[in-house]
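Predict the holo structure. Ligand: zinc ion.
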Amino acid sequence: MCLQQGRACHCGRRMAYLSFRDNVLTPEILRNLYCPECSAQAQWDSATMVEDCGWILEYDMTGARFFMSQRGLGGDISPAFLFDEGYLSWQGFSPLDHEVNSALHQRLAPLIKENMTRYLELLKSEWLAHVAALKAAGWRKAQRA
Ligand SMILES: [Zn+2]
């Protein structure tokens, strides 16, 4: 079970859905979240920040290392590690995957009664197309999909 949370960015114009692998970290560990429109306000620091397609996540690395060590997860913990390993990252592959997924299910829902096989096929193919588009756009987590 992973904690999930919606969070507004620094300027408040965009929303991101976050997930926390194994609940090791808490929402407070994400000090700041910048969308592509407000990321210019972030003072880039590779020791605490990771960038993904114009979004910047700033972590409290001291707090993160503390929580990680409590679970016996030590070693080389960088912002990229926290993000790429999913300890505090997008829910899915991008900030809005949660909404894209819900919208897709909603759009295809009428098919459930008509043709369940077709519904499942479309659900799968449209989701894969979405992931392929994210991958092509350069989203970090989609690169591993
Ligand atoms: Zn913003």
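Helices lie at 61-70, 79-84, 97-108, 111-114, 116-137, 140-143. The first helix runs from residue 61 to 70.
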